[in-house]
Automatic annotation (TrEMBL):
Its main location: endoplasmic reticulum. The lineage of its organism: Eukaryota, Metazoa, Chordata, Craniata, Vertebrata. This is Polyprenal reductase. Its EC number is 1.3.1.22, 1.3.1.94. GO terms for molecular function: 3-oxo-5-alpha-steroid 4-dehydrogenase (NADP+) activity; polyprenal reductase activity; polyprenol reductase activity.
Amino acid sequence: MAVWAGAALSTLSPLHAVWLTLTAAFLLSLLLQLVPPSVLPSSALFQDLIRYGKTKSGGPPRPAVCRLFEVPKRYFSHFYIISVLWNGFLLWCLTQSLFLGAPFPHWLHTLLRILGAAQAQGGELALSAFLVLVFLWLHSWRRLFECLYVSVFSSSVMHVVQYCFGLAYYVLVGLTVLSQVPMDGRNVSVTGKDLSVQARWFHVLGMMMFIWSSAHQYKCHAILGNLRKNKAGAVIHCNHRIPFGDWFEYVSSPNYLAELMIYISMAVIFGFHNLTWWLVVTCVFFSQALSAFLSHRFYKSKFVSYPKHRKAYLPFLF
Ligand SMILES: NC(=O)c1ccc[n+]([C@@H]2O[C@H](COP(=O)([O-])OP(=O)(O)OC[C@H]3O[C@@H](n4cnc5c(N)ncnc54)[C@H](OP(=O)(O)O)[C@@H]3O)[C@@H](O)[C@H]2O)c1
């Protein structure tokens, strides 16, 4: 056991440490939500840092000073603008290196090494990392489109810390993907000149899973958007209503479930064995579980007629 723990620690890169810390923070926050307030009274600052949007109203009374740190939740679109630009740039660097043999910029290579890229190369296929980066980029485009044209935001808010976290998050995710590319100095190392020889069955499976989860996430965001529109598509209010249809029949936050499935589809594209990516998936699992739990509680406290069979996040389970 001690030998195993020692070996695990010696391969722990800064990236692993970051994802593990974030995972632990979300898990702990979720566990603290399960403790009744009579046993452990919650601090207003803590609740302010974990709640955003509609669930902000469900926490303990917030001191007036909290309002100074509020940012409109519609700024979610900024996360995806950053992601489209940053991950588009990383994809461009990777494409140049894969197809034209151009080395990564010096600063990017150094940054990847600092994050532990050298430790990460356990025989990963360059094609897998390339496909994951392409899908991350497409995912960001779709989410940006949804924020701008599908979702109807109310005047709900988030904490400025959550906003900064959201901006940094997509920068980190992109770097995590790129750190998995097998490198030879500043160039991508590809066995065989033709990338297509690296194609595997799990790339196809992951791609199908990605499209399926993305389609459901889009559908769920459209259902939420339509709750605030009339038949002609005009926005008529900004209240929160009970959503029905698609995966909403099973869980309160199917968009969070779909997000998890999207990250799992990328783990499949990585061939199931990429530990770093599974850490990302675990982090997303707990961050979305926390938001889903708070949303479910919001719906149950606001609507007496809320469907009893509906779970928070995982159909039939949680
Ligand atoms: N990868 C990650 O770590 C991560 C982190 C956070 C979010 N995300 C993803 O980003 C997406 C959006 O997240 P979110 O937390 O903003 O989702 P959300 O709370 O479900 O909100 C999505 C949209 O629907 C509106 N809405 C929510 N509940 C509604 C209701 N009952 N009636 C009418 N409109 C309603 C919201 O408006 P208002 O809230 O303005 O009222 C917002 O415009 C999700 O798919 C999530 O998975 C990913």
